[in-house]
Amino acid sequence: MTIKELHALFLEHPVICTDTRKITENCLFFALKGPNFNGNAFAQQALEKGAAFALIDEEEFKTSDRFILCQGVLSTLQQLATYHRQHSNAKVISLTGSNGKTTTKELINAVISKKYRSIATQGNLNNHIGVPLTLLSIKENTEMAIVEMGANHKKEIEFLCSIAQPDFGYITNFGKAHLEGFGGVEGVIQGKSELYDYLTHHNKHVFLNADDAIQKERLEHYTKKVGFSTKDHQYYNIKFLGVDPYVSLEVEETTIHTQLVGKYNFPNCCAAILMGKYFNVPIEEIKSAIENYFPKNNRSQILSKNGFDIVLDAYNANPSSMKAALENFSMMAAKRKTLILGDMFELGSTAADEHQAISDLAEQLNFNEVYLVGENFFRTNTSYHKFSTFENLKEHLSNHPLEKGAMLIKGSRGMALERVLDIL
């Protein structure tokens, strides 16, 4: 079956499933493989649960005409997504970066959807599987598609661009994330910049934070760019008003009060505002979209529980985002401040130094109590409470209840520090 023929079949059955636990009636099941599973073995089960057809790449599993045999299920999914993208009328906005991708994507979609029929990456499905699935969610009437792209090594963004073929793009920032895979900060810059490389090579439009020296330098001679800045009047000006604890800003004499904590969320809001202006969304609608966006999924959420005012930022962490979170928390108005920090993953040979640097920063910022959790933090040289496992932290806090006050909880996803909420 050719990709063109498969696309015709997809239009008749426009729902893709890759997990037999989430089969919907008349969907197409793609039998993906992983290190510990073979989707081909579940294809029959998918059909029994209601899938219309199952795409497989191992002939032994083909027992009827409802099985479609292809060279490789993953590459077929990716080719189908590109074909579908090429035959849709939607404009594709792609974004990547070390920190803030998902929040920025959701803010952009909130703003864009005020004027256009839009779709956006669900959650953080931003890899070589998630990007195709996002593209395949484009409907006939979709006008804008906001596609988040994640990467932990070079050439990954380049590959995702070849699938999504974006019309516009934005990089949130370049930070100390996935250092192990990128081989250092310079590798991060090169890897994330593959989005701008694609756009400039194809003469597409670029959005940029003109206050970011790296972005500004890399795009200095490119003409199809639109940027925001707090100081450079060559670009669209947005004024930062402060955080208390939420970000406030001013644009075109309009004040916007967000539900987002941390100055690090200011450029995320600016990117959404810039794109709203570029696509002619009225400023009143932009204001409404941003003021009514509430973070979720453990991303900089403000919670109150049993006398604690909690900043829950347990979705992910790297040295850049950790530093920004600590500095922001130190500026919040509270009589008592407690930190609970979990290990940062994928730092390779820099892990020891980066965890020690965060521990040292916490000492400089003078918090009342600091609890460090994870094997890397356990090895730091510090006077703080430190625990090699979450279970050890839990046991300690069960016997030594925390004093009420403000609390920041932050760590990499694998640490699952949202479990602290069950202890309080």
UniProtKB/TrEMBL annotation:
Q: Which gene encodes it?
A: murF
Similarity field: Belongs to the MurCDEF family. MurF subfamily.
Q: Answer yes or no on keyword Cell cycle.
A: yes
Q: Where is the Mur ligase N-terminal catalytic domain?
A: 16-60
The cross-references to Pfam families, in alphabetical order and at most eight, read: Mur_ligase (PF01225), Mur_ligase_C (PF02875), Mur_ligase_M (PF08245)
Q: Which GO terms describe its molecular function?
A: ligase activity
* NCBIfam families attached to this UniProt entry: murF
Q: Where does ATP bind?
A: G97, S98, N99, G100, K101, T102, T103
Tell me, in a sentence or two, what this protein's role is: Involved in cell wall formation. Catalyzes the final step in the synthesis of UDP-N-acetylmuramoyl-pentapeptide, the precursor of murein.
Task: Please report the name of this protein according to its UniProt entry.
Answer: UDP-N-acetylmuramoyl-tripeptide--D-alanyl-D-alanine ligase
Question: Organism source for this protein?
Answer: Flagellimonas okinawensis
